[in-house]
From TrEMBL:
<feature type="binding site">
    <location>
        <position position="160"/>
    </location>
    <ligand>
        <name>Zn(2+)</name>
    </ligand>
</feature>
<keyword id="KW-0862">Zinc</keyword>
<dbReference type="Pfam" id="PF05280">
    <property type="entry name" value="FlhC"/>
</dbReference>
<comment type="subunit">
    <text>Heterohexamer composed of two FlhC and four FlhD subunits. Each FlhC binds a FlhD dimer, forming a heterotrimer, and a hexamer assembles by dimerization of two heterotrimers.</text>
</comment>
<keyword id="KW-1005">Bacterial flagellum biogenesis</keyword>
<feature type="binding site">
    <location>
        <position position="143"/>
    </location>
    <ligand>
        <name>Zn(2+)</name>
    </ligand>
</feature>
<keyword id="KW-0969">Cilium</keyword>
<keyword id="KW-0010">Activator</keyword>
<dbReference type="GO" id="GO:0003677">
    <property type="term" value="F:DNA binding"/>
</dbReference>
<keyword id="KW-0966">Cell projection</keyword>
<dbReference type="GO" id="GO:0005737">
    <property type="term" value="C:cytoplasm"/>
</dbReference>
<keyword id="KW-0479">Metal-binding</keyword>
<keyword id="KW-0238">DNA-binding</keyword>
<comment type="function">
    <text>Functions in complex with FlhD as a master transcriptional regulator that regulates transcription of several flagellar and non-flagellar operons by binding to their promoter region. Activates expression of class 2 flagellar genes, including fliA, which is a flagellum-specific sigma factor that turns on the class 3 genes. Also regulates genes whose products function in a variety of physiological pathways.</text>
</comment>
<dbReference type="GO" id="GO:0044781">
    <property type="term" value="P:bacterial-type flagellum organization"/>
</dbReference>
<protein>
    <recommendedName>
        <fullName>Flagellar transcriptional regulator FlhC</fullName>
    </recommendedName>
</protein>
<dbReference type="GO" id="GO:0008270">
    <property type="term" value="F:zinc ion binding"/>
</dbReference>
Length: 188
């Protein structure tokens, strides 16, 4: 085998590996089509093999509003803070940082017995929104932690959802969220 063809084979194996990891974490076909350099037919076959079913049809959720609602915002801020640390501060390649951050998010949920709010496809959409400059991280003036917010919002008087929760959110839940966000941000 020439070195060129073995490089090509390695590239392809890496792409297959990436696809499998994403499928295992719950990625929709649209995510694979954007991020994995394999043709659609192969991705569909891989999906069926790994997930044991055909990929679901339908559009991806496309709304920035969802990420700004109370509970999703806390989960999104937690996830994005980890991603941001891996990708922008430690220089990890984008998809590698994404998978690592998403695994950490899931581990954290398992550890605290919390429900998964941010499915992988949502997490990916969130990263894309940041990349297209629709979101920024705003620092809460009260707790000093970072939260997902609309881009170009002056955050001089920003107060996060943990510090200013809606009345329907119970106290223990708030404490738990606060702890989650702190854990993610404290080791920066
Ligand atoms: Zn706060």
């Amino acid at each position: 085998m020439t070195s060129q063809s073995s490089t090509k084979l390695l590239d392809e194996l890496n792409q297959v590996q990436l696809a499998i990891e994403l499928i295992e974490l719950g990625a929709r076909l649209q995510v694979l089509e954007s991020e994995v350099a394999l043709n659609r037919g192969r991705l569909v076959r891989l999906y069926k093999e790994v997930a044991g079913k055909s990929p679901p049809k339908g559009m991806l959720p496309f709304s920035t509003d969802w990420f700004l609602t109370w509970m999703p915002n806390i989960h999104a801020s937690f996830f994005y803070t980890i991603y941001d640390r891996f990708h922008n501060q430690q220089g990890l390649e984008r998809m590698q940082a994404f998978i690592k951050a998403y695994r950490m998010y899931q581990e954290h949920l398992r550890g605290t017995g919390s429900e998964e709010v941010l499915a992988l496809t949502r997490a990916w959409t969130l990263v894309r929104f940041f990349e297209s400059d629709m979101f920024q991280l705003s620092t809460c003036t009260s707790c000093k932690l970072n939260f997902v917010n609309h881009a170009h919002t002056p955050d001089s008087d920003y107060v996060c959802g943990v510090c200013q929760p809606p009345s329907r959110a119970g106290k223990p839940l708030i404490k738990d969220c606060e702890k989650s966000v702190k854990e993610a941000q404290v080791s920066r």
